[in-house]
Design brief:
By secondary structure, this protein is an all-alpha fold. The protein has 3 helices and no strands.
Length: 77
């Protein structure tokens, strides 16, 4: 019997599993980093999307401090 064929088949299957898991992990890392760049900090810290937008507007100077505090109080309930 050709035992080496069984070894080649086993290595092929294990290679597919290895590279499949490697690709899955790399994909997860890429998605996590992209999410972090696009507002992931707000979700991690429990800040609502509206509050994140409000903070960005305040940082850009579109609204003053009084309006920021007033709208923040409304968003936080």
């Amino acid at each position: 019997m050709n035992w080496y064929l069984i070894g080649f088949a086993a290595m092929g299957v294990l290679g597919l599993i290895f590279f499949g898991l490697l690709g899955y992990r790399l994909g997860r890392v890429i998605v996590a980093r992209a999410e972090e760049r696009h507002g992931g900090w707000a979700r991690r810290r429990g800040v609502s999307q509206g509050l994140a937008v409000l903070a960005e507007r305040y940082a850009r100077g579109e609204i003053d401090e009084a309006e920021f505090r007033q709208r923040k109080a409304v968003l936080e309930g």
